[in-house]
Fold:
Amino acid sequence: MDFRKISADMKEHALHLLTEGWELPEIADVLGVSLISINRWVDNDDRHGTVIPPSYHQGRHRLLNTEAISDLKELIDESPEFYLDEIGEWLALYHDIPMSTTALHDNLRGLGLTRKIMHRQAADRAPLQILGLC
Structure:
């Protein structure tokens, strides 16, 4: 049998047929699913109360929270000449978020705050600062 998405309704219908006294091979044959799938649905229903198990977030937790990101953007906007190690020290001191320069670089890149963009923003502001408009 090929992989295909099976609706929650069909899974619940399979469990209903089980409670009505149908045998597993009969249900699998009628619905065109495997015995393993039906057993998994029964297990999910027993464990979680539903045929669809809860989704667990996988992956690493974010190092930067919203407040730190907001303050970081403001810091970079005010001082685009800071180096990564200086920004890292600032994060550790003011937000108690120690992180490696590599992790900081990856996070800044993910936020769209690359050195090239920061220098372009600073260059765009420089003429305005000279004229006293900023």
Q: What stands out?
A: The chain is about 65% helix and 0% strand.
